[in-house]
Amino acid sequence: MSTARCFRSMVARPALRSYIKPQILPLSIQTRHASSKHPKGFESPSSSDLDELRERVQEFTRREITEEVASHTDKSNAFPNDMWQKLGDAGFLGITADEDVGGLAMGYQAHCVVMEEISRASGSIGLSYAAHSQLCVNQLQLNGSPEQKQKFLPGLIAGTSIGALAMSESGAGSDVVSMRTTAKAVDGGYVLNGTKMWITNGPDADVIVVYTKTEPDKASKGITAFLVQKDFEGFSCARKLDKMGMRGSNTGELVFDGVFVPKENVLGEINRGVKVLMEGLDLERLVLSAGPLGIMQAAMDVTLPFTHQRKQFGIPIAQNQLVQGKLADMYTKLQAARSYTYDTARKVDEIGQIRTQDCAGAILYAAERATECTLDCIQLLGGMGYVEEMPASRLLRDAKLYEIGAGTSEIRRMVIGRAFNKEYSSHAS
Ligand SMILES: Cc1cc2nc3c(=O)[nH]c(=O)nc-3n(C[C@H](O)[C@H](O)[C@H](O)COP(=O)(O)OP(=O)(O)OC[C@H]3O[C@@H](n4cnc5c(N)ncnc54)[C@H](O)[C@@H]3O)c2cc1C
After folding, report:
1. Whose alpha carbon is nearest atom 41 of ligand 1?
2. How far apart are the CA of 407 and the centre of ligand 1, in A?
3. Residue 307 and residue 404 in one domain
4. Of the listed 284, 350, 368, 403, which one is catalytic?
5. Where do the Acyl-CoA dehydrogenase/oxidase N-terminal domain residues begin and end (predicted)?
6. Which domain holds residue 124?
7. Does the annotation count 284 as an active-site position?
8. Pocket test residue of 198, 244, 402 for ligand 1, highest count of atoms within 8 A of CB
9. Residue with the nearest Cα to atom 45 of ligand 1?
10. Ligand 1 within 6 A of CB of 410
11. Last-in-domain residue among 219, 244, 272
12. Looking at the structure, do residues 40 and 143 belong to the same domain, yes or no?
């Protein structure tokens, strides 16, 4: 039995599931559950389901994403393309998607578990994984028509095609709504013109969720999302970017030069793309917050044995209080960040509650703590922390991305502050 089918039969066993009985929930929560971002019939996994899933992912990473693979991916700056098929065979590419298109319908806690464990093995494989399984697959799951889902999701989930999402442009990053890529209505579809920058999986992707302006004068009310296929005429990847970290997670600049996209490939409603974009960003930030968790765990995995084996002044360096203090801080930051991410994901799964400030907060907190923990990892390894024989420098270079991608730390703080403003202005009125 394939691992995917094995998971499916595992999660179908009622004894393994925890059931939230709608009748015992307050009415406000029941209403929110009705608009939940899960496939039909979704039931939140129990903690033992999630533990079992974590063990399966760890078995996978021990076998397929060894330290050698992670290091080679970083040094060669090339994604190991056979990984897509392996991730697909393992059932990890459609964690939040419908079972009838090959997904596991296990929800966002499960997606965070897979993301955390893959990122623990390799930050860059983790980032590409999330761009595919969350940014592309989950956006299609949430916004695709039945025909679009049937057409694209089986291949994406099996790992035979690669997905990406393109919203950022060289002139529109934090202020993404100021994007300039346009889509002009023509007979039978739209013609896209413009460029997209820093697109994860862009150089390899077969299917890309692309945000454009269909009504450039209407600002956020004129945005539409499209599904662009690699073989559409006029589409190309101009270059692969050379990055300081997340090397091997291929990042590209994409060009749309008069690309005709049939109307069947409009994702969601015309001019309502900002809703697709913003709602997608909440869940994207939540799932991506598990990336820095994995990197922090990887830093612990390196630092703990090293500091207990390395002796100076006749004793393991971990017996010095200054070293213990750093280890304790690393551990506490990881555990606090982990609790925040999984608590936010549990509320999405169990009561359908998506709080923008917590999705932004979880990644804000985890990302900054990951940079701190990986710097501490380098410090505690001393000279060995500074040489490329050890993974410490890669962990730091990978961690830093999470303070920039999916909205920077400054923008996340702004998003949280704005949520308070909204709450207080509604109290005032
Ligand atoms: C490796 C990598 C992968 C990525 N993958 C994708 C992807 O798959 N798809 C995609 O669409 N995009 C992707 N991005 C793009 C990413 O989301 C943007 O880089 C990010 O949103 C920041 O935009 P910017 O680079 O234009 O920075 P800018 O917006 O120019 O910001 C520069 C600095 O100014 C600060 N700043 C800007 N505005 C404000 C403000 N109002 N208040 C306070 N500070 C402010 C920022 O916080 C930052 O410190 C990726 C980026 C990287 C590096």
Report:
1. 411
2. 5
3. yes
4. 284
5. 49-159
6. 3-162
7. yes
8. 198
9. 410
10. yes
11. 272
12. yes
pLDDT at 13: 32
- Residue 4 — very low, low, confident or very high, per pLDDT cuts 50/70/90? very low
Rg (CA), the chain: 22
What's the mean pLDDT in 284-310?
A: 98
Inform me whether the pLDDT recorded for 2 exceeds 70: no
Shared domain check, 387 and 355: yes
Q: Is this structure's pTM higher than 0.85?
A: yes
Which atom of ligand 1 is closest in space to residue 135's alpha carbon?
8
Cα(305) to centroid(ligand 1), Å: 36
What pLDDT sits at residue 36? 60
User: What CATH number does residue 55 fall under?
Assistant: 1.10.540.10
Ligand 1 centroid vs 31 CA: distance in angstroms? 35
The CA–CA distances, whole Å, from 177 to 94, 120, 131, 189, 223 equal: 28, 33, 20, 22, 8
pLDDT tens across 64-82, in order? 999 999 999 999 999 999 9
- The greatest distance separating any two alpha carbons of the chain, rounded to the nearest whole angstrom, comes to 79
Q: If you measure from the C-alpha of residue 123 to the centroid of ligand 1, how many angstroms do you get, rounded to a whole number?
A: 19
Residues 46 and 118 in one domain: yes
pLDDT tier for residue 7 given thresholds of 50, 70 and 90: low
Tokens (6 digits) for 11: 């999660």
| Residue 404 in contact with ligand 1 by CB distance below 6 A | yes
- Report CA(167)–ligand 1 centroid distance (Å): 11
Q: Check if 30 has its Cβ closer than 6 Å to any atom of ligand 1.
A: no
Contacts of residue 429, Cβ cutoff 8 Å, sequence gap at least 6? none
Number of domains in the chain: 3
Residue at which a domain ends, from 162, 177, 203: 162
CB contact burial 37-60 (16+ within 10 A = b; e otherwise): bbbeebbbbeeebbebbeebbeeb
Query: Looking at ligand 1, which atom is closest to the CA of residue 172?
Result: 26
DSSP codes of every residue in 64-102: HS-HHHHHHHHHHT---THHHHHHHHHT-TTTTS-GGGT
| 33 has a pLDDT exceeding 50 | no
